Amino acid sequence: MQDVKDGKSLKPHIDAMERQLNEVFDAVDKTNKHFWPSMPRAEEVVNQSPGYFSRGDISEVAVILGSNYTAWRDTPGAVNWVKKKLKGRKSQKNANAKRMNLILGFGWWWYASDTGLASDQ
């Protein structure tokens, strides 16, 4: 807080923390792809908690969220941050899918016109 009192910007510190949070998000996502999508509906997932779990599986998520979801829920903005990250990721996936459809469509058009399949007969 002394930096703020001295008129210094906290932006470099905030940027560094955002980078660290993004690294954690990505690392968790690589470890278990079910974890982040389960966070917004954690109470539902926790109620399905099994007696055992497999690493990387939804059952692992149920066990982990069962032991620490209250910390996420009680931290202001934490669950909303996850929701924003998921929404951004969904938007990126949709954009990538559209791009791939365009590429595949153009590839088919090029192949068909090159081989004569697209000619009017």
UniProtKB/TrEMBL annotation:
> Origin, by domain of life?
Eukaryota
Full protein name: Uncharacterized protein
Annotated organism of origin: Zasmidium cellare ATCC 36951
